[in-house]
Amino acid sequence: MELPRIVHDEILHKLEEPQEQHLAEVFHAAEVQVPVKELSNAKKHVVFDADGIALKKQSKQTQKKLNCESTPLLKPSPSGDHIVVVDANKVEEILDAEEKDAIEADARMKTWSIVAEESVILVKLSIPMIMAALLEFIPDLVLTMMVGHVNPNESTQILAAFNLSGLVQMILLAGLLNGLSSAIDTLCSQAFGGKRMTELWLYCQAGLLMYAMCMPFTAIALLSGTHILVWLGQDPEISKIAGQFLFVNALAIPFGVIYSVMKSALQAQNIVFPFVVSSLIGWIVSGVIAYLLAFHTPLGYLGIALASPLCFIVKSLALVPVILQNELFQATWPGWKPHEAMALVPKISKLGVSSVLMVTFQMLGFSFISLLAGLLPNAGVMITANGIFTSIILLSFMPLLGICIGGAIRIGNALGAGKARRAALIGRIVMIGSVSISSMGMIGTVFVAEPYAYSFTPDPKATAVAVDLTYKLLPIIPLMGFTFGMQSILRACGKQLLCAKFNFVCMFVIGVPVGLLFAMQLNGGLAGLWLGNMVGLFVFMLAGIVWLYRISWDALAHEAKHNTHLNFGKAPAAADAF
């Protein structure tokens, strides 16, 4: 989701800023002066740029450029005969001493003092994340409810088609936009952090070119939505209506691309507020227009489908003046340089393809049940009921977003500071909080399930199946709560690959086959598909408990303390010393 990710990045930036300042102080404390003529033989040193920022180890081409573009960035001594570098051994000594002091300071604090302090911080971090998530979730929720009431006689079929079209967009369009956006965000942020402003704008232009290359394939896929869904075994009538939704939403592609690139350029500069404003304006304007078109013109449900492209149009237009008035844009925009930008496309592709696959894989894993629901008897009712149930689950998870993301940040900060005991305690707070909050969400779901389901469609069959499914699968909410909490700890400890392996094995290798067995062979229907998912979640929980029992927080803290921002390791070759 866009807004939670933006707010998360802003919170992360604010929390990391003091760490960056402290790191600069450590570098300065470890400064040594090396004669210019001996610089090429320097071992295990880090070079400062003109602003005191450490230059990371680069490729051999950087050494060849030392006497041209890199030379003005090196920090000379007052005499001009030496270059200021950082002795890696001194940095390690300082970090070792700080780690020892941090462990001793943490050991002197009472457990409940740490728990109370971190609980307050987590609450403060969670509130903006929850609000941002609601801002992203509620507009889609309102549009889905509107679709179910446009034509009461065909509400189930239309709502099922709307859910299927959303699934296709999530996999084809959202996966592409979010994946490439993640890669462009990373490169733009690195360029801004390295004060390479011209390069920042060239990355934006390269991003536009990359999107332009992908746009025809994405458009063809969306315009062929009906045939794709029929090929996947979905009901032909429902697939036909879903194809109409996808045809309208194809209009959003160019505006979504423009908005995504502008967002990357501004977000790299830590400018966040315009996104929140543009999103609010976009949803309000498009929501009102969609309502008028749906209920007061012959367009009907297609009027609601226009909300997405209208929203992207408004959001893009709202950000254009922000870009044009941006001081950095006015001072450093190099003009349109397609040849230079094209040279950067391979770099974006290398990072972007993996990001697209990662995002798409995550979305496909969560929405796979929606496709399988369309293979069951009475597909329209099953897809609609599954969409309502999924919406209930997502709503009950809103408070979890805050504590899981906030907990991941605080665990990472504690590990980076060498405070293993504090990190372990925060991990326990996150796990207890996740299970407790999701359990309360489960209890609340019991009371709101029936009226919530009826707000989507007047069809008694679909609502009855959705409510029955909710009551049968209530335990899945705290089970998912445990899983989300466990995933946040794995990310905070830098174990993303292990987390991905857990997800793949538990959700796909175990969850999908077991779900199909329950649904098809044992006549479990839609509930059977979700029971298979629950089995996968249960295995994930067991694996997570074993991992938590076996890990050494002290080892994780030592690793984080000595690897955060620093990559010394063994002494590099002279040509790679920079």
TrEMBL record:
It holds the Pfam family MatE. GO terms for molecular function: antiporter activity; xenobiotic transmembrane transporter activity. The keyword Transmembrane applies. Keywords: Membrane, Transmembrane, Transmembrane helix. The chain crosses the membrane at residues 119-138, 158-180, 200-221, 241-259, 271-293, 299-324, 356-376, 388-409, 429-449, 469-490, 502-522, 528-549. GO terms for cellular component: membrane. GO terms for biological process: xenobiotic detoxification by transmembrane export across the plasma membrane. It is found in: Membrane. InterPro entries: MATE_euk, MATE_fam. The keyword Transmembrane applies. It comes from the Eukaryota. It is a multi-pass membrane protein. Belongs to the multi antimicrobial extrusion (MATE) (TC 2.A.66.1) family. PANTHER family: MULTIDRUG RESISTANCE PROTEIN. NCBIfam families: matE (TIGR00797). This is Uncharacterized protein. It comes from Globisporangium ultimum (strain ATCC 200006 / CBS 805.95 / DAOM BR144).
